[in-house]
Design goal:
0% strand; transmembrane helix; membrane; MFS_trans_sf; cell membrane
């Protein structure tokens, strides 16, 4: 039997670079919130809508991109979405009012939505399950470093009173990466283009795909866990820079650098994921990841000295990716014959959870303060992680 043609070595690294741009898009606005609040004359909670609307659009758009990727080829859709994200980032940089910025951030969330879930689904198509988790972890290095770079760049831009600069940087990244992805797509062997011809109405097919996934008990658990994880972590997370700035008096650039250590914790997991998986298994990874994440998030909120947030941020990143990577790997296998739709549903739940979390946190902020938000998120994440770990072991 003839062996399939090899996949170009640059295929996964290019996807990781696209995820890097997506990560910056997601988190660059976090340290900018005090500056945006001052620039547009609105409360901090209102300024946080630039994060909420991005997450809402990102979450809803997943539902369409999954079936599109299955129908026209995941790699091609990712390439086109990266180029579209270049355009929406430029529109964000050109915004002249908060309502206009919110509108284009909504578009930016929609165009970026295809990149990470379809990349995960494409990796699921071409990599066997027993080798998939380490490959996914290496792919996610791009997103991890993007999240870290986003908060750092956003912090420096806020201190320099130049909130448009991060969006210009994102546009340049997406332009270069999108062109590279489009060129590489033409060199992919047929089995890696992941095209599944579909007859009939695209909308009816999409609804049928998601009905099938929602009927699977394990899929429902994974999706609910992703939703709660996104809300309980990223609701408080969006205000960490503001917390460190207001409570400890440090600059937003330094606060962004502290949060950047969250990404380094994720990078440490990616480098050691194979050994950690062999030692702890999926149940142990999700359990101890949740414990580490919860303790670290609470420490950031309660630390009496700002520098204690540095090791706590690193450990929070390590714990989060231990838990989240286990969820992602399960998402790629919960409906293999509908992998694009399944992973998109997973990502949609995760980012809709983020949108809900940031929205609720913004409403509570004036009443409970940032420290209480971080502690509440920590306790909720601990409960979610322990429940998922128990169910993994039972399964």
């Amino acid at each position: 039997m003839p062996q399939p043609s090899p996949i170009p070595a640059s295929a996964v690294p290019l996807l990781s670079l696209a995820a890097f741009g997506s990560g910056i898009s997601m988190r660059a606005a976090d340290p900018l919130l005090p500056l945006l609040s001052s620039e547009f004359g609105v409360p901090l909670g209102d300024a946080s809508l630039v994060i909420t609307v991005f997450s809402i659009a990102y979450g809803f758009a997943q539902l369409g991109f999954g079936p599109l990727g299955d129908r026209y080829g995941k790699y091609l859709v990712i390439a086109l979405a990266a180029l579209a994200s270049c355009g929406t980032a430029l529109l964000c940089a050109a915004a002249t009012s908060l309502p206009l910025l919110l509108a284009v951030r909504l578009l930016a969330g929609a165009t970026a939505a295809a990149i990470i879930p379809l990349s995960m689904a494409w990796i699921g198509d071409v990599i066997d399950y027993e080798h998939r988790q380490p490959v996914l972890a290496r792919f996610l290095i791009g997103q991890i470093l993007g999240v870290s770079a986003g908060v750092l760049v956003g912090g420096f831009a806020a201190d320099a009173y130049q909130w448009r600069l991060p969006f210009l940087l994102v546009a340049a990244i997406f332009l270069l990466v999108g062109a590279g992805l489009l060129a590489l797509n033409r060199r992919l062997p047929p089995h890696a283009k992941s095209v599944r011809p579909i007859a009939g109405s695209a909308v009816r097919h999409m609804l049928a795909e998601f009905r099938h996934i929602a009927a699977l008990p394990w899929a429902r658990l994974v999706l609910l866990t992703a939703f709660l994880e996104g809300g309980l972590l990223y609701g408080p997370f969006a205000f960490i820079a503001s917390h460190l700035h207001h409570r400890h008096g440090i600059s937003l650039a330094l606060a962004g650098a502290v949060i950047m250590l969250f990404g380094f914790g994720g990078f440490a997991f990616a480098m050691g994921s194979k050994a950690l998986l062999a030692r702890l298994g999926e149940g142990g990874l999700s359990r101890w990841g949740g414990v580490l994440l919860a303790v670290s998030l609470a420490a950031v909120g309660l630390a009496p000295l700002w520098w204690l947030a540095m090791p706590a941020s690193f450990c929070a990143g390590l714990g989060f990716y231990m838990l989240h990577n286990t969820l992602q790997t399960n998402a790629t296998q919960m409906a293999p014959e509908r992998r694009g739709a399944a992973v998109s549903a997973f990502a949609s739940c995760f980012f809709m959870g983020q949108a809900m979390g940031v929205g609720v946190a913004g409403l509570l902020l004036a009443h409970v303060g940032t420290a209480a938000l971080l502690l509440g998120g920590a306790l909720g994440l601990l409960a979610v992680a322990l429940n998922f770990s128990r169910r993994v072991r039972m399964r």
